[in-house]
Hints:
Blueprint: E1 8-11, H1 17-28, H2 32-35, H3 46-49, E2 54-60, E3 63-72, E4 77-84, H4 93-107, E5 112-118, H5 122-130, E6 134-141, E7 144-152
Parallel strand pairs: 4-5
Antiparallel strand pairs: 1-2, 2-3, 3-4, 5-7, 6-7
Amino acid sequence: MVETAQPRWRQATASDAPAITALVRAAYARWVPLIGREPMPMRVDYAEALTRHRIDLLVVDDGLVGLIETLQHPDHLWIENIAVEPQCQGRGHGRMLLAHAEQRAREAGCGELRLLTNAAFASNVALYERTGFHVGRSEPFMGGTTLYLSKRLVEA
């Protein structure tokens, strides 16, 4: 996908569930051989997830390039999922998705972002760490290791 327009945001609706499912499956497919199973986001019913979580879509030239799925808590914004279309990876979209979540958290008066990821997803972990997230704890999960990360937001 050659991008010619500025990225724009829109909140997902129920009609976006098939496109969300396709994007997530494509984005996480590269990890299947590494961990020997489908990552958990590939198993989600996104029609149902849209009733519980907010999913913001990053769109370029009317094409879906990324998404961030969040859940608002009183003291933090939980990032349930972040995914970028494979042919669009490496262009800064992941950083844009994380910055969008940070902006939403600040607007809601939250002082922290939280997420978890598989320790085997080294490039994802590196992105999180480069953008200010820190590993708070880890635990075994389905033959691998889950990392719990957070980012404290400082007042501007």
